[in-house]
Amino acid sequence: MKLRCIAILNRQDTPVYMRSFDDNEGGGDDVKYQHLAHTSCDVIEERMQKSPSDMYLGLLQTVGELAVYGYVLNTGGVRIIMVISVPESIVRAAAIKEVFQQVHAAYIALVCNPFNEFDDASGGGGRLVSGKFEAIISELGRVHSN
Amino acid sequence: MASQSHAQAQMHAHSLMKLDNKTSKRSTVLLEQNIARPRRDRVGLGAFAFLIAEIIRYSQNRVMGIQDLEAKLSEIGQRVGVRMFELSMWREKTVHRETRVLQTLVFINTVVWRALFDKQADSLERSTESDDEYMITDNEPAILKYISVPKEMTSFSPGAFISGIVEAIARCCQCPARVTSHVVPADGLPLRTVILLKFDKEVMDREKRLEASKH
User: Fold this and answer.
1) Which chain B positions have a beta carbon within 8 Å of A119's beta carbon?
2) What is the pLDDT of residues B31-78, one digit of tens each?
3) Under a CB-based contact definition with an 8 Å cutoff, are residues A36 and A60 in contact?
4) In chain B, which end has fewer C-beta atoms inside a 10 angstrom radius, N or C?
5) Given an 8 Å threshold on Cβ–Cβ distance, is A75 in contact with B97?
6) Chain A contacts of B5, Cβ < 8 Å?
7) What integer is the mean pLDDT of B154-173?
8) Please, what are the domains in chain A?
9) Buried b / exposed e along B50-62 (16+ C-beta atoms within 10 A)
10) Its domain of life (chain A) (predicted)?
């Protein structure tokens, strides 16, 4: 499973964090992932209504060779979006869920940091900036880059 | 020996998760412990008493008046409350977030109080005069044990810190309220603190609508 991008959106669907793992194309491709994140918002809302008792939302859409998966946090609607290259072999939902849970855990650790000014209680759109969080996401990208 | 919990751990710079939970070793250093499974989730009361005394002194140097002091402590408490909410929901692993008034109050009384103070809040009451006021009572808030209020400031309640935490959690549960704390000594309990929550009008209207639509 090749991880291409991880994005975190807040409740108002503003991207709060975006990280792409394509090392060859540079900044131009971020626009592609932002576009994907925005188009997935409606699908997220739809899925949330359909199955309100599940954090993992499953496959949201596929565009070309990219598949987009979604995940909602239980504390009020922060969303995590993951884009992977469509794999040759079948990807188990459990593997995707595991990656989401690791991102969730890293996010919780980040929010608990009292020195981090990111405050989502009022829906403000601060950006997530933290060396350790970036390190975890980079590690995830490295592990799932085959 | 009284003990405390994650509120202090959050006051210090909180460490992060190791990527693979299964192989992380038990670390004796507080900052490197896994936040999902706290092995030693108690902080000595002495350490925290020192911290909160310093917080109060820091706030007092920057404000003029008791109201401002309580507001500042409440603001600091709110920062703790937001993080406490995220952490509690993560630990509970439930998907459902409380949005009704009564469930939110029960959540605060049990889960949050247990995580912060290692006990449940002593009572939850609804005020008889107005139906949008609720009171959470803590007979002896451990974190305020070593704070003594001078005679000229008897209207000041150091529980403003706790009321800030409660206010942030109520707001995260979509039930915004004005929260204040009052010291109401009873016999044998000189530190008895009552946290008064006055829910906003739109919350009470919503509750009425939901109640009506259920019947």
Assistant:
1) 79, 82
2) 665 666 655 567 788 888 898 899 988 988 888 888 889 999 999 999
3) no
4) C
5) yes
6) none
7) 89
8) 2-143 (3.30.450.70)
9) ebbeebbeebbee
10) Eukaryota
